[in-house]
Design goal:
- The chain contains twelve helices and ten strands.
- With about 350 residues, the chain is an alpha+beta fold.
- Helix content is about 40%, strand content about 15%.
- The strands form three sheets. It has a five-stranded antiparallel beta sheet with strand order 1-2-3-5-4, with no helix packed on it. A three-stranded antiparallel beta sheet has the order 6-8-9, with helices on one face.
- Bound molecules: 2-acetamido-2-deoxy-1-O-phosphono-alpha-D-glucopyranose and magnesium ion.
- 2-acetamido-2-deoxy-1-O-phosphono-alpha-D-glucopyranose binds next to loops.
- The site of 2-acetamido-2-deoxy-1-O-phosphono-alpha-D-glucopyranose (GN1) has 9 residues, from loops.
Length: about 350
């Protein structure tokens, strides 16, 4: 697929001096930065094996864009650009769905959070996004990936993989599999939440890594981006994925597990930033589930990676043999390092 010839003209780009470079580190969609005449744009190919109805993403983004425009016009909402035919998504048979966003002038995204202040700013932005949309009727949002953060279902998928998956891989990964099973009580807490009215479903981003926040040149957060997985959900998804991805200085790809540590200052910054926006929205009970949020997301990610490893990498793919096993083991080490902090951090910010 030649993007310069087949995709960009549909978004109105014809310049010969256009440049296209791969951008960001997402595992699911392909992303490029497009530069033309000193202006920058983000082009994405939506993975339609994962998002089987990309139109649902487009309709959610439209709904949210209109809501912001009417109710919070000052919010820096990054709306997608239309094609020359007025669509938000360009479909190219046997290649997929493409969309384009303008790059907010003066903004930048970070691949890693370098200090607690950035973690605070990001958490505040994700909290603000949910708060500003708190009066949007969540039943109008389309479900872009059914049961995406349903930990019970993720555990079931793991059990199915143990039954039907690659036996050789299972034998070699026996230790990690046993550890994962050992922590299954994390699932029961979630299951109990589902029938507890104290836990509210709100507009939830579901992918709160720091590269999904735009910052200005003073390192103040501006807004959140990548709304593919915005759906009704629980606050533990957004807070939990921030804890999972900001607490530790190395990512899920790190093979040297001695580098996996949990940084208290980042924990506090995330809770403080999120609560800055959300303190009046959360119920008293939800307020006691910040520490659990981290367990929930770290454990879910370990489950998803080990499941995919056993299923021969059908979801995440792998750049080298055993990559998803490394990722799963990494996340289990992170979970242990995190649990060691429960006495110190477990009740932080509850009041
Ligand atoms: C995927 O593609 P990316 O990196 O934004 C995944 C997330 C995982 C993440 C793990 C739709 O996100 O849920 O947390 O990988 N997104 C989907 O790196 O499955
Ligand atoms: Mg994403």
């Amino acid at each position: 697929m030649n993007i310069l010839e087949s995709v960009l003209p549909s978004f109105g780009f014809h310049d010969d001096s256009i440049t296209l470079i791969p951008f960001g580190g997402g595992l699911i969609n392909n992303t490029w930065k497009v530069s033309e005449k000193g202006k920058e744009y983000i082009l994405q190919r939506v993975n339609d094996n994962v998002f089987t109805k990309p139109q649902n993403i487009a309709s959610n983004i439209r709904l949210i864009a209109d809501y912001f425009k009417t109710n919070w016009p000052k919010y820096d909402f990054v709306a997608p650009m239309s094609t020359i035919h007025g669509e938000d998504l360009l479909y190219i048979p046997s290649s997929g769905y493409y969309r384009m966003f303008p790059f907010v002038a003066g903004s930048h995204a970070k691949q890693v959070g370098e200090n607690p202040n950035q973690a605070y700013e990001a958490a505040l932005q994700f909290g603000r996004f949910t708060r500003l949309l708190s009066t949007l009727d969540i039943s109008n949002l389309s479900i872009t990936i059914p049961s995406f953060h349903d930990l019970g279902l993720r555990y079931e998928q793991f059990l199915t993989a143990l039954e039907k998956g690659n036996k050789e891989r299972m034998t070699a990964a026996k230790d990690v599999i046993e550890q994962v099973i050992k922590y299954q009580s994390i699932v029961s807490v979630y299951t109990a939440m589902l029938s507890d009215p104290a836990f509210k479903r709100r507009v939830t981003h579901h992918d709160t890594k720091i590269s999904n926040v735009l910052f200005d040149n003073q390192d103040k957060g501006l807004c959140v981006i990548d709304l593919d997985t915005v759906m009704p959900g629980y606050f533990i998804s957004d807070v939990g994925d921030m804890l999972r991805t900001y607490l530790c200085p190395v990512s899920e790809e790190e093979k040297d597990f001695s580098k996996i540590i949990v940084r208290d200052e980042f924990y506090k910054a995330i809770i403080n930033g999120y609560k800055e926006e959300m303190k009046h929205e959360l119920t008293e009970k939800e307020n006691k589930y910040f520490f659990y949020a981290g367990k929930f997301m770290i454990y879910m990610q370990a489950l998803r990676f080990i499941t995919d490893h056993i299923n021969d990498d059908i979801y995440y793919g792998a750049k080298y043999e055993g990559q998803n096993l490394v990722r799963a083991s990494n996340q289990m080490v992170l979970l242990q390092r995190y649990l060691e902090k429960e006495n110190d951090l477990g009740t932080y910010g509850e009041v």
